[in-house]
Design goal:
Layout (H helix, E strand, L loop, with lengths): L3 H17 L2 H14 L4 H13 L3 H14 L4 H13 L3 H14 L4 H13 L3 H14 L4 H13 L3 H14 L4 H13 L3 H14 L4 H13 L3 H14 L4 H13 L3 H14 L4 H13 L3 H14 L4 H13 L3 H14 L4 H13 L3 H14 L4 H13 L3 H14 L4 H13 L3 H8 L30 E5 L4 H7 L3 H6 L3 E6 L1 H7 L5 E6 L9 E4 L3 H4 L18 H11 L6 E5 L9 H4 L3 H5 L7 E4 L6 H9 L4 E2 L7 H9 L3 E5 L2 H8 L4 E5 L20 E5 L6 H16 L2
Parallel strand pairs: 1-2, 1-4, 2-3, 5-6, 5-8, 6-7, 8-9, 9-10
Helix pairs in contact: 1-2, 2-3, 3-4, 4-5, 5-6, 5-7, 6-7, 7-8, 7-9, 8-9, 9-10, 9-11, 10-11, 11-12, 11-13, 12-13, 13-14, 13-15, 14-15, 15-16, 15-17, 16-17, 17-18, 18-19, 19-20, 19-21, 20-21, 21-22, 21-23, 22-23, 23-24, 23-25, 24-25, 25-26, 27-36, 31-35
Length: 726
């Protein structure tokens, strides 16, 4: 018969084997003890611990449970049972076990630590913080506890406090790699990208194959706009972990920033091939397709992201933007509203919704959306800038300027806000400051013209150009070139030799502009020059204000040969001859605001007039109207360039035009020009005046309210009666 002393000896042998890592022998000895003495409480407990170590968690629960039934006041038993329940993901039961251990032993710091871990899994982060803090108060020197506290604080978005906890963990254990990594992630949240980068570098120095650290290092570099270095980090992460789909996706976002769209698409494609249900990659791919203006394909990509992740609020917002570009406005609004329904505090969706409502001329609703976005996110510089555009459209210029200033105060290097402010200033007649801020156009990502990076210096009027050859080059639209080429003779009068680079269609028209030595087709090889200036920077160079606009009279002339040709082509007319222009470039950002259907125009004009279409390009919908109105003369492809259009303009008694290049052309020729303007006009037409300081022969007809063309034509017909008896 085995006595108690022998059982104890066998137990001690089992315990020694357990401590030495000889688990098979320890298990056999524990089993032999329990075979003799089934209620040996320590053997039950430690057999349970060993079962847990062998991942036999339910057996561990049974054994430790028996030990607790025999000895309910043992804190260690309850703590170890809690740990096993944690491994079984029974986190609520685990917390209850840790609570029992703590009630027996109030200074049981291990129980507080494990309790905190279980509470984190239950997303009870406030309680987890309390548990970790209690453990630290009992035993402050454990780096892992400070690390766990930092993680819980990060979940509560108490980022500064989290960084402080990670710092304490690192001070206690300088080689704690995970603390450097999580510290870097928290600094990313604080937008302290330089410090985050430093933290990731420390983690990588300790663990060179830490692919997640390389990945997040790339994210920090991306935020710092160090795109080449970011690419290197993502590539390193992929080299270490070739199936790292997140790295492929984020690599794609960097390639997007570098405008390498094809490579970005390839990277997102690789991410999706590795993880076909990767909603974020579909979302990012959609964003690149938006940049490529492939809006249908972008919509498809966003829809796939949503199919995978139905509560993906960011994608609903971006999907709304794609639908807006496709002119599917009702569906776009529905998508923005869905985004907001999923996440009611999603400021970006409110801002995007505001932009859409503004385009739909629902100004009050748009205003409400922008104000909501700003209330949610007070430092939302994009929303302040968008709000400024809306207020300008509402003709509230001073509040618009205040809104741009708020955006600039939040983000002092924000090009869009400076650019938008410049347009509002110019619209309001503040030319001096407006021209200065207009130079911010070159820093905009989506500016319509690209910046010319010549080795020759930019001339902005600060130095004398006398004796130098200066290249004046066009930008933006054809109307802008016609508008601002008036400055070329002024530059020549300062003693400079002028080379003018413009679009092919304008070369013949501008070839005889006074002071021009040479006209060059845009895109062809340039002759030598000493300095350069974009045409639309010339008002800044000459410090133009309302009282010093140059060449207010005619500064362009028709080609005599073309004039004779078109005079014969038109023949004599006994009626008033009126040139018509009703639409501009369909790709223009504000085309829907300025262009109107031909049917809208012709149905509201008097009949006993000879109408001549001055447009070369005619949209399909307008072609039908032309065919049903054969009395409107249309020459189409016979208009080779602007020399033909200029000759036709000179042969008109009057030109009626929306805001297009032909309006500028006829004004530059000094001919009577009536321009039909939307409620929110381009800056150059200013506000509340029916004349233009740029073109004395112009008369402006303005919408009194958004989309109110009816009132414009009523006023125009009254004027036709008064001036021409029609």
């Amino acid at each position: 018969m085995v006595n108690a002393a022998q059982i104890q000896t066998k137990f001690e042998q089992a315990f020694a084997c357990h401590q030495q890592g000889d688990f098979p022998q320890a298990r056999a000895l524990y089993d032999s003890v329990l075979a003799i003495e089934p209620n040996h409480v320590e053997a039950l407990h430690l057999s349970g611990v060993m079962a847990a170590q062998a991942k036999q968690h339910w057996k561990a629960v049974e054994l430790i449970g028996k030990a607790i039934a025999l000895q309910p006041g043992n804190a260690a038993f309850h703590c170890n049972l809690g740990f096993v329940l944690y491994e079984l993901k029974a986190f609520g039961d685990a917390v209850a076990s840790f609570d029992k251990a703590i009630s027996i032993k109030p200074d049981y710091f291990e129980a507080y630590i494990n309790r905190g871990n279980a509470l984190q899994e239950l997303r009870k982060f406030d309680e987890a913080v309390e548990s970790f803090e209690k453990a630290i108060s009992i035993k402050p020197g454990l780096a892992e506890t400070h690390f766990n506290l930092g993680n819980a604080l990060k979940k509560l978005e108490k980022f500064d406090a989290a960084v402080e906890s990670f710092d304490k963990a690192i001070a206690l254990k300088p080689d704690l790699v995970a603390a450097y990594f999580n510290r870097g992630n928290t600094l990313l949240e604080l937008k302290k990208f330089d410090f985050a980068l430093e933290s990731f570098d420390k983690a990588i120095a300790l663990k060179p194959d830490y692919y997640d650290a390389h990945f997040n290092r790339g994210n920090a570099l991306k935020e710092l706009k160090e795109f080449d270095a970011a690419m290197e980090s993502f590539n390193t992460a992929i080299a270490i972990k070739p199936d790292y789909y997140d790295a492929y996706s984020n690599r794609g976002t960097v390639l997007q920033e570098l405008r390498q769209f094809d490579a970005a698409m390839e990277s997102f494609g690789k991410a999706i091939s590795l993880k076909p249900d990767f909603a974020e990659a579909y979302s990012n791919r959609g964003a690149v397709l938006m940049d490529l203006k492939r809006f249908d394909a972008a919509l498809d990509s966003f829809d796939k992201a949503i199919a995978i992740k139905p509560d993906y609020h960011e994608v609903y917002s971006n999907r709304g933007n794609a639908l807006k570009e496709l002119n599917r406005f009702d569906a776009a609004l529905e998508s923005f509203d869905k985004s907001i329904a999923i996440k009611p505090d999603f400021a970006e969706a409110y801002s995007n919704r505001g932009v859409l409502l503004q385009e739909l001329k629902k100004f009050d609703s748009s205003l409400e959306s922008f104000e909501k976005a700003i209330a949610i996110k007070p430092d939302y510089h994009e929303a302040y800038s968008n709000l400024g555009i809306l207020l300008e459209d509402m003709k509230q210029l001073d509040p618009a300027l205040e809104s741009y200033d708020r955006a600039i105060a939040i983000k002092p290097d924000y090009p869009e806000a400076y650019w938008n402010k410049s347009l509002t200033l110019l619209l309001g007649g503040n030319f001096r400051l407006g021209w200065e801020l207009y130079e911010w156009r070159w820093k905009k990502d989506d500016f319509t013209s690209f910046k010319r990076n010549f080795t020759q210096p930019l001339w902005l009027g600060k130095e004398s150009p006398a004796g130098k050859t200066i290249l004046l080059h066009s930008e933006q639209g054809l109307g802008d070139t016609i508008h601002f080429c008036r400055y070329a003779p002024l530059v020549a009068s300062l003693g400079a030799r002028i080379i003018l680079e413009v679009e092919q269609s304008l070369c013949g028209l501008l070839n005889d502009l006074p002071g021009i030595s040479e006209v060059v087709v845009k895109g062809s090889a340039l002759p030598g020059f000493d300095c350069h200036c974009p045409l639309m920077s010339l008002p800044l160079a000459f410090k133009t204000d309302l009282d010093s606009i140059p060449e207010a009279g005619p500064y362009l002339k028709s080609d005599p040969g073309k004039l004779a040709y078109w005079k014969e082509r038109l023949g004599n007319s006994s009626t008033l001859r009126v040139g018509l222009v009703w639409s501009g470039n369909i790709t223009h950002k504000h085309d829907g605001n300025r262009s109107i259907p031909l049917s809208t125009m012709i149905d509201r004009l008097p009949e006993d007039v000879t109408y001549v279409c001055l447009q070369k390009e005619v949209r399909e919908i307008d072609r039908v109207t032309l065919e049903s109105n054969p009395d409107i003369l249309h020459f189409g492809d016979e208009l080779n360039d602007f020399t033909d259009t200029a000759a036709l303009c000179d042969l008109m008694d009057l030109v009626i035009s929306v805001d297009t290049s032909v309006a500028h052309l006829n004004g530059a020729l000094g001919n009577p020009t009536w321009v039909l303007l939307p409620y929110s006009p381009d800056w150059r037409w200013m506000l509340d005046r029916n004349d233009s300081p740029w073109y004395p022969s112009m008369r402006l007809f303005r919408q009194p309210g958004p989309d109110d063309w009816e009132s414009v034509f009523m006023e125009l017909n009254s004027a036709l009666t008064r001036v021409y008896g029609k």
